[in-house]
Design goal:
Elements: E1 30-33, H1 37-47, E2 51-56, E3 60-64, E4 72-75, E5 95-99, H2 102-114, E6 121-124, E7 128-134, E8 140-146, E9 165-166, H3 169-178
Parallel strand pairs: 1-4, 5-8
Antiparallel strand pairs: 2-3, 3-4, 6-7, 6-9, 7-8
């Protein structure tokens, strides 16, 4: 019988597979529990610009960019009227929404600012630029774009040398107004 790991426990070493995961694997979508579906749609569609691809009555909706079946699922099945997760508890830290270009990220910043949504932070990670905020249910949201891989900072041994430097938010916003 194989020993099972409990919550928060690493898997026993005997179950580890030394082979890496297929590099083509991607995260397909995220599904969030929300307290108020219409309020969540107001943020993800009204502010960020996603489009509803399907609704399941008053309790769930799927939204996407570019006609994909869904990038984000939103539901109130177990959370209608519920409070945001308490600080100091486990759960989703943030979901990252990857924009195809710096100009597209700049447009997202313009939308967020026009809606009066406060940023929690903004960082230049060397490999990417990122804006951090909260959705109406307190879920962490990262809006980001990746620099081309040949521009990623690397240490002398070739490993990534990511940073968390201050992002020039005003400069990014200027890119939105000039596009």
């Amino acid at each position: 019988m194989t020993e099972q790991a409990g919550p928060g426990q690493p898997a026993p070493p005997s179950t580890a597979d030394p082979r890496p995961i297929d590099p083509r694997v991607r995260i397909g979508h995220v599904h969030l529990k929300v307290a108020d579906l219409e309020r969540a749609l107001g943020f993800y569609c009204g502010v960020l610009g996603f489009a509803v691809t399907q609704r399941y009555g008053p309790s769930a909706a799927f939204v996407s960019a570019g006609g994909y079946h869904h990038h984000i699922g939103l539901n109130t099945w177990e959370s209608r009227g519920g409070p945001p997760p308490a600080p100091g508890t486990t759960g989703l830290y943030h979901v990252a929404i990857l924009y195809p270009s710096r100009a597209a990220l700049a447009d997202a910043l313009r939308r967020v600012m026009a809606a009066g949504i406060r940023l929690d932070g903004a960082s230049d990670h060397g490999v990417s630029e990122a804006l951090y905020l909260r959705d109406p249910d307190g879920n962490g949201v990262e809006l980001c774009w990746d620099r081309p891989e040949d521009q990623w900072p690397r240490a002398a041994d070739g490993t990534l040398a990511m940073v968390s430097d201050r992002l020039d938010v005003a400069g990014l916003l200027r890119e939105a107004t000039s596009a």
